Amino acid sequence: MQKDPQASQSTDQIAQQLQETVETVAAPVIILDDIELTLGEGASRVHVLKGMTLTLEQGKSVGIVGPSGSGKSTLLMVLAGLEQVDSGEVTIAGTRIDLLDEDKAASFRGENIGIVFQSFHLIPNMTALENVAVPLELAGKKDAFTVAERSLKAVGLAERLHHYPSQLSGGEQQRVAIARALAPSPKILIADEPTGNLDAATGKQIADLLFSKQQETGLTMVLVTHDPQLAARCDREVSVRSGKIISAFSNHADQDSAGQSAYDNMPEKAVS
Predict the structure, then answer these.
(1) Which residues contact 38 (CB under 8 A, 6 or more apart)?
(2) Among 21, 88, 201, 250, which is 20 to 30 Å from 5 by CA?
């Protein structure tokens, strides 16, 4: 009995599509390979990152913990393309950002990476709506204010669109910062101590908001935090000390094999 060539072709196409889907799901969105970074000059020169290697898949969250001065925030700067490494490779969403010049890095960051800072970094003489719209306008988005309004409403600030930062509470200012980071629909959200300047109750609300948005949008989230409870909510934790990753492990027992491979050859538990 002869096979129907059309049916065979259809089966082959389906198999190829399934393979492409699996590869897309499993593909890492963040790859750091043997990163070295030294800052300062002369006697003040400091070796900040030492052979740092890290991989994270799309849609996952990682909490980066460690003492002050361990290199956590510098690591975030490298991930965002805001700090140039001495050696090693930094691949974000398939692009070697360590090879990009300053202008191309800024363009890539605007399209792919949202950043939330501990101290909000809002422009004081602009309203919440204007603060969120500015980076969209700079990126050439024609509907910047429409997108900004939608993003602010999504974080519960529908009634605060035209308020200035000085008229907002700390929690509200951080919500504006989160709306600004999420407005361009980035693939990756980077947050440096996002609850550090907030009281416990407000900090929990901001943490809840971050994780709910991460789940809703399927973006990859990288958090630097001193809060062990916040780090424990992430899919994975990475412990950094003296510029090195000293441990990395999954917080969830049901990780798939691709997820487990993210930290090959790393200790299973954090070192105290």
Answers:
(1) 45, 46, 47, 48, 86
(2) 21
Q: What is the 3-state secondary structure (H, E, C) of the chain?
A: CCCCHHHHHHHHHHHHHHHHHHHHHHCEEEEEEEEEEEECCHHHCEEEEEEEEEEEECCCEEEEECCCCCCHHHHHHHHCCCCCCCEEEEEECCEEHHHCCHHHHHHHHHHHEEEECCCCCCCCCCCHHHHHHHHHHHCCCCCHHHHHHHHHHHCCCCCCCCCCHHHCCHHHHHHHHHHHHHCCCCCEEEEECCCCCCCHHHHHHHHHHHHHHHHHHCCEEEEECCCHHHHHCCCEEEEEECCEEEEEEECCCCCCHHHHHHHCCCCCCCCC
Over residues 148-184, the pLDDT tens digits come to 999 999 999 999 999 999 999 999 999 999 999 999 9
| pLDDT higher at 43 or 9 | 43
Mean pLDDT confidence for 9-19: 59
pLDDT by residue (tens digit) across 188-212? 999 999 888 888 898 899 999 999 9
Are 230 and 204 in contact, with CB atoms under 8 Å apart? no
Q: What is the average pLDDT score of the chain?
A: 85
